[in-house]
Amino acid sequence: MFTGIVEELGEVTAVENLGDASRFRLRGPVVTDGAQHGDSIAVNGVCLTVVEHEGDEFTADVMAETLKRSSLGALDVGSRVNLERPTAVGSRLGGHIVQGHVDGTGQVLARTPSENWEIVKVSLPADLARYVVEKGSITVDGISLTVVEAGPDYFTVSLIPTTLDLTTLGRKQPGDPVNLEVDIVAKYVERLLANTQGAGR
Questions:
Q1: Are strands 154-159 and 80-84 parallel, antiparallel or unpaired?
Q2: Comparing C-alpha atoms, which of 112, 100, 108 is closest to residue 124?
Q3: Residue 54: which H helix or E strand, with range?
Q4: Pairing mode, if any, of strands 57-63 and 80-84?
Q5: The whole model's pTM is what?
Q6: Are 176 and 132 in contact, with CB atoms under 8 Å apart?
């Protein structure tokens, strides 16, 4: 489990095509500190397993299904990525509960700068819109954010200077893809309500 608080801005140093998968090598001095084979690291919000670890770099295999359902397939050597290690039991939950299981992708639609923050508008797939509410939580490229406005096919978030400086959202431009993970609590509530209504018939 993750919290959506990005620990560092890493970099893709190699991409190897494995046919039905890809192997990424990524640099991240913070997240690789003490990393071992089999550990999990979230890369732009996607939970990946460490295959190898050497120095400040690690490799991870990404299956075709993950490449299809996330924006990781668009990464290339030199791409910057948000990195986060799983939260430790007993530590503070700084963001919200994030599984690292991407629900879909959106695109940056617009950026509106202000003196002390920036509003970013992101497209929202129709099947995810019902889980996104004003003042609710959403994960964008692995970043826990608060929804400012929830439209039928878009949402907006307000980014403080720290988020702009230390994550990929400071660099994303209109048209760029982003990974989206909606609040897991909303999905559980929906399923429970559906089961309850079905049992009452």
A1: unpaired
A2: 108
A3: strand 46-54
A4: unpaired
A5: 0.90
A6: no
pLDDT score, position 91: 73
Return d(Cα 108, Cα 122) in angstroms, integer. Answer: 5
Q: List, in sequence order, the alpha helices (H) in 106-183.
A: 161-166
Neighbours of 20 (CB within 10 A): 9
pLDDT of amino acid 95? 75
Q: Are the C-beta atoms of residues 179 and 71 closer than 8 Å to each other? A: yes
State the residue for tokens 């406005």: 149
d(CA 1, CA 73): 23
- Residues of the chain by 3-state class (helix, strand, coil), percent to 5: 20, 40, 40
Query: What are the residue ranges in the chain where pLDDT is below 50?
Result: none
For residue 200, the model assigns a pLDDT of 55
- β-bridge pairing 104-113 and 80-84: unpaired
Q: What is the reported pLDDT for 5?
A: 92
CB burial string 154-192: b at 16+ within 10 A, e below = bbbbbbeeebbeebbbbebeeebbbbbbbbbebeeeeee
